[in-house]
Amino acid sequence: MQATDPGAPPAPPDALVERLFNATTAAMDLFAVYLGDRLGYYRALADGGPATSGELAQRTDTAERYAREWLEQQAVTGILAVENPHAPATERRFRLPAGYEAVLVDPDSPAAMAPMAQIFAGCVKPLPQLLEAFRTGAGVPFEDYGADLAEGQAGTTRPQFRHLLAQEWLPAMPDVHARLEANPPARVADVGMGLGWSSIAIAQAYPNVRVDGFDLDEASVAAARANAEAAGVADRVAFHVRDAGDPDLAGRYDFALAVECIHDMPNPVAVLGAMRRLVGEGGPVLIVDEKVADRFTAPGDEVERYMYDFSILHCLPVGMVEQPSAATGTVMREATMRRYAEEAGFERSRCYRSSTTSSASTA
Ligand SMILES: C[S@@+](CC[C@H](N)C(=O)[O-])C[C@H]1O[C@@H](n2cnc3c(N)ncnc32)[C@H](O)[C@@H]1O
Which of 129, 142, 220, 297 falls 20 to 30 Å from 123 in CA-CA distance? Predict the structure, then answer.
């Protein structure tokens, strides 16, 4: 029997060269998608149909020469189709292939991927601070990641809130679902709600419910208020700039939830303790967080890789801003979550594994 050499690399060096070259073009593709999304190019092609570089520049109020280079890049990389590739450059017409609108334009589509490009751009915004943080052990404040991070994050979870929160996640907790439908109107606390789409989805699905969202980030709270206004639920949904771990956070709620944020917090136990207080003895709390494996495995699968990518670039650094810190990172395993819940005084917890990238536990 041949023993495996524990010092052998996971793949030969040549394969690594190829892999990193492909990763470079893939990363550049994401930044090109970022440009197309933020400049409104995809939207203009979806709404106005195929365009030459001049037409696209006119529709989006951008410079023709840049629009042309981007269109050619998109066609060469295989995202856009070109109808007449042999025509002179300024006469070529480019179009969004059928079905791509769901991926690149529609913010409610479960297939939406443009927010992924935006969150990636946000993750690399504070690279110099990130290098410094790795050297010193300090953190990188959430606000230093800028609007792209917060908007990109909200863009990735918004379709899940729209299609799963009230359709799958809450009905999986029958008592909560029934209480949210009942009278007197239930009160919900949404911790770390970012741009507010979870609160808005709950208010839309349960027309009596009142929601209070608490988030530390002022810019996110301002954007969440505007989103609630535009969605027509601002009379029942209020957003507050608050540290959810603040021992003075008061109120009486029928249900509390925290989506994709416990792993970012320096003191998750204090926040869970606050949520427990808000719902009172035996009250229901839902934590939706990343669906990671139960143990460290290397090499890991795509999901595990994706989670570690976010962890090193964003989640761990934002969680290190306050010291001492639990320093959880994105890869918060179920056992860690259960330990935090126990330390916060919860007596019972249950783990659901949904079909999405999130797992949830109630206490
Ligand atoms: C990754 S984002 C998740 C946003 C939203 N829940 C979602 O799923 O799209 C994490 C959010 O938690 C907020 N946050 C982190 N620590 C917090 C704390 N101690 N109290 C309140 N909000 C906090 C951040 O400001 C940020 O908006």
Answer: 297
